[in-house]
Design a protein that fits this description.
The protein has about 280 residues and is α+β, with helices and mostly antiparallel strands. Helices cover about 45% and strands about 15% of the residues. Strand 2 and strand 3 form a beta hairpin. The relative contact order is 0.14.
Length: about 280
Amino acid sequence: MEEVLRELEACLGPIEGEPEALREGITNRNYRVRFGGVDHVVRLCGAETALLGIDREAERAAGSAAHAAGVAPEVVAFLDAGDGCLVTAFVAGRGLEPADVRTRVDEVAAALRRVHAAGPVEATFSPFAVGERYLELTLERGGPVPAQVGPAREAAVRIEAALPEYEPALCHNDLLPANLLDDGTQLWIIDWEYAAMGDPYFDLGNLSAMNGLTVADDRALLAAYGERDLRRLRLMRAAAEYREGMWGVVQQVLSDLDFDFAGYAEEHLGAMLASDWEQWL
C-alpha cells in the first residue's frame, strides 16, 4: 500500500494524517485518504477479481460516466499496475438500509434512469453467463458445489429463455443498500466494479432482491422509473439472487478472506428457488 500511496501523492498532493480503513468489503480494501487537503477514497483491488467478471477499466469508465450524470463520486485517479487501484472523491454520507430503499424508490429510480442513459462502456454483463462462468471456475479448482446449484441452474435457463430482447444500457449490477449513500442532500451510487452494458431490468430486479422489495414495492419502482413490465422485473429479481448465490460459490475458491461464502451462496440460491419466479414465466 505504501508504494501505491507514494505514486498517488505525485498527482494528488501530499498525504495528510493517516489513511482510515473504511467499511470492510469482501472483495477489495478501501481507505479514506487525505491528499492535498482533500479527502479521497482509495480502493485497493482484490486479487484475481477479473475472474469474478470485474473489468477495472470498465469500472473507471462507468464511474466517470455516472459522475457526469450526477449520481456517482468523481473518479480522480486510476492505477492499473498489479491488482489495480481506483481513487474517487470522498462522499460524507451514510449507506442506506433496505427499509430506506423501500421508502425512497422514487429517488433511486430517478438515479437509475440517469445511469441507464449514461453509457456506453466496453464491457457486457449477463447474470446467466456469469453464473455459468462461476461454476466452471469452481469445478476447475476443485471447489464444493452446493446441492442447490443444479435446480438453480435449471431455473436460470428457463428464466433466460422467457426474457425479451433488450437494448443494452449502462448498468451498475450490484445495488446492495450499502452502495447507495445519502449525504443529506442527494443520493449517490458507489462501487461500480460490476458495471457493464446489460439489461436495465437487471438493475431493477437486483435492487429489488438486495433490498427485500415486495411485489407492491416493485410496482412503485416501475412506476417511478417509467416502465410497466412487472413480469420481467420479477424474473430478473430471481436472476439477481442466482448471480449472487453463484458469486458466493466461486468465492470459496478465489478469496482468502475470512467470510462464510458457503453460507452466503446457500442463502441466495435458496432465496432464488423459494421465490415466485415460476408464476411470472
